[in-house]
Amino acid sequence: MPFIKTRRDLLKLVPAGASLMLTPGLFAEMLEPTARLTEGPFYPDHLPLDTDNDLLILNDSITPAVGEITHLSGQVLSASGSPIRNAFVEIWQVDNNGAYLHTQSGNAEKRDNNFQGYGRFLTNQNGEYYFRTIKPVSYPGRTPHIHIAVSLNGQRALTTQILITGHPQNDSDGVFRTVREPKQRETLLASFDPIPNSPLNELSAKFQLVLGQTVDENQLKEIHGGIAKPERMGRPPGPPRRRP
Fold first, then answer.
1. CA 201 to the chain's CA centroid
2. Distance of CA 152 to CAs 51, 53, 124, 132, Å?
3. What is the CATH number of the domain that holds 65?
């Protein structure tokens, strides 16, 4: 069989008229899949009663959480760039005092009780998600980050973390350094930019989630299951781990 170097060489081997049946986008460049990072031990062990996508206001409270207000949004996409609808996106992070919504979190005695700490969102037909939260802060041992996960029909499809572009602690962060490829590191970074003319000095952050797996057609149309269990569940107990 002749060596195929270009698309034109391939078309020469295809019978007349059959080229019209070639799959659209077959030769399109695939997106770089979002790098995976550890879930860490501090996925909430007791979810809040309020699990919506606004982490600044709990239930009917009128007192907002402390921190730099951030509008976090993006899309969940397949590697070919197709939007993935009906995907559950979860985020969880420390509050402005560096405390997680977890009974074993460090600095728990100073936890901001007005901060939800966890939220979830179901992507729309364009694969879009949105959260209102705070800009992540550092705590001992870690650069600022937001944990984020995607579930499709009850199965965890991606677990990773969002880091701040250009933050000085990134290069020394032990978790971030496990990702060695520069292109993969880029998939974990987001810019937290000021929103022009915002009276509250709010920020905007965009973060694209590209799944490196094949997405079943049913996952794009119907919901057959909910959010996957945390990855740490079902693991045998072990020694305390340094919190990511």
1. 24
2. 18, 18, 13, 22
3. 2.60.130.10
